[in-house]
Write a structure and sequence with these properties.
InterPro entries: Glutathione-S-Trfase_C-like, Glutathione-S-Trfase_C_sf, Glutathione_S-Trfase_N, GST_Omega-like_C, GST_Omega/GSH, Thioredoxin-like_sf. The protein has 363 residues and is α+β, with helices and mostly antiparallel strands. It is built from twelve helices and eight strands. Strands 6-5-4-7-8 form a five-stranded mixed sheet, sandwiched between helices. The chain has a three-stranded antiparallel sheet with strand order 1-2-3, covered by helices on one side. The protein is globular, with a radius of gyration of 23 Å.
Length: 363
């Protein structure tokens, strides 16, 4: 395999959508044959990069970047990042008659420390004191293609297909399965957080680590705030980081920091976002702020304001939650940095992981 073939194979990681052919007597002249869904001419002549000028190299890289980001992060018609809908939406309930009743040694939860959606579920389990009810399998990010794998090397796709033989969709984490009846229960973190909080409120055998306000008891204005945090902050950093044009990026950044401004004003008056008791709003926000200084700021270009300097009450809130027993163990920031900076090739082609950028989490 020559250098150009290796380069194209590395970028596309598949032979289904692209193939490479020599198209002249020169060993440095190629044609890149693509499927029509790339919306480019069927054959694009690509001189080897060492023989072309900066302008051609720039054009090629820009096109490759757009292809890779489109594959990595789904977008809508405006170029804005759009998170796909999860397909498995069952819930565990505190009732023996439920389809999925709360029972020990029945459910397995697959998670990965780098994933913020997994982090919110692990955080909820810790705060609700429900970890003993679930067997937790920690997965690792596959740097080469962004997928997840178990520590024994088995891909998370094999787990999906073990429980749902004909499943061909996206294989995401967190994933909750019924290990006794061989069914996928849920793969949507928002659902898991909500039904775990409901389980905690109705389970007399587990006492929450801290007082928690049940989501179903929140007023509509509070639920609207939770939705803004989810869309403008949790998803907002990804909308900024994976934006494919300036307008989409600026729109995402504006909404992100406007929402953080609102939260800062709330935390100036109270210990937590909704008052003096933690709610789902705090659980949703924590994983994003936990990653903000080390990852979302520098890597996703969310640098308009600094969490420590510009949001002192938000930073104190972060330290306050981090100090709760069991919370520190729900994340691994160093592993998370390694995953983001090495697996998101379009955002960091060098795969260099910066030193520092960590919060002083303890007061």
């Amino acid at each position: 395999m020559d250098d150009m073939t290796a380069f194209v194979s590395f970028v596309f990681k598949t032979k289904e959508n692209v193939s490479l052919h020599h198209c002249s007597k020169s060993k440095h002249h190629y044609s890149l044959v693509m499927k029509a869904n790339y919306k480019l001419p069927q054959v694009l002549q690509i001189p080897w990069l060492s023989r072309v000028g900066i302008a051609t190299s720039y054009t090629l890289w820009k096109w490759l970047w757009n292809v890779m980001v489109s594959q990595l992060a789904p977008k809508d018609q405006t170029g804005e990042y759009q998170r796909p809908v999860s397909l498995f939406r069952n819930k565990i309930e505190n009732s023996p008659q439920a389809l999925f009743p709360l029972e020990k040694n029945r459910y397995t939860l697959y998670v990965g420390f780098p994933c913020p959606w997994c982090h919110r579920v692990l955080l909820t389990l810790a705060l609700c004191n429900l970890k003993d009810y679930f067997h937790i399998e920690y997965c690792e990010a596959n740097i080469s293609d962004g997928s997840w794998k178990l520590k024994d090397g088995q891909s998370i796709r094999r787990i999906y297909q073990y429980y749902e033989r004909h499943y061909r969709g996206r294989c995401t984490l967190p994933l909750l399965v019924d290990s006794i009846h061989y069914r996928i229960v849920n793969n949507e973190s928002s659902d898991m957080v909500q039904f775990l909080m409901e389980l905690s409120a109705t389970n007399r055998y587990s006492v929450p680590i801290v007082p928690l306000q049940n989501y179903i008891l929140l007023e509509e204005k509070s639920k609207a705030l939770v939705q803004r945090i989810h869309e403008n902050v949790n998803n907002g950093v990804y909308k900024a980081g994976f934006a494919q044009n300036q307008k989409s990026y600026e729109s995402a950044v504006m909404l992100l920091f406007e929402t953080l401004d609102e939260i800062e004003k709330r935390l100036e008056q109270h210990s937590f976002i909704e008052g003096d008791v933690m709610t789902i709003a705090d659980i949703y926000l924590f994983p994003t702020i936990y990653r903000f200084k080390a990852i979302y700021g520098p890597l996703f270009k969310c640098l308009w304001k600094d969490i420590v300097l510009d949001y002192p009450f938000l930073f104190q809130w972060l330290q306050r939650i981090y100090a709760i027993p069991g919370v520190a163990e729900t994340g691994d920031l160093e592993q998370t940095k390694q995953s983001y900076y090495k697996s998101l090739f379009p955002l960091n082609p060098s795969q260099i992981v910066p030193k520092g950028l960590n919060y002083p989490f303890t007061q």
